[in-house]
Write a structure and sequence with these properties.
Length: about 120
Amino acid sequence: MAYVLVVDDDPDYVEIVRTVLESHGYHVEAAANGSEALEKMRRRKPALVLLDVMMSYVLDGLNVSQEMREDPALKDVPIIMVSSIAGSPYAGMFPTDQYIPIDQWLSKPVNPQELLRHVARFVS
């Protein structure tokens, strides 16, 4: 059973994703912000991370992805960034002119079947 870490500060979103993924055989844990996520990942390496951008601060998730890529133990963990930042007042703060160390981008809201399809691409 693949371990997926969902990193998002919206408890309703986390529960929806947990329900969808667990009903398809994934083991899901959650973290509400970047520092909690990194702590959990360093204790138990996930097969995949679903990562929001805006949590404790506007670019919290972006910083997590950068830290993961710099950490030899986490650099190969696939990251699907799932965010609503594009439609928020903070869209201009997201760096569109630099490399973002993620494997996939999905905009919220995400259709459950689409989410499952993308998760399955990275987790076998």
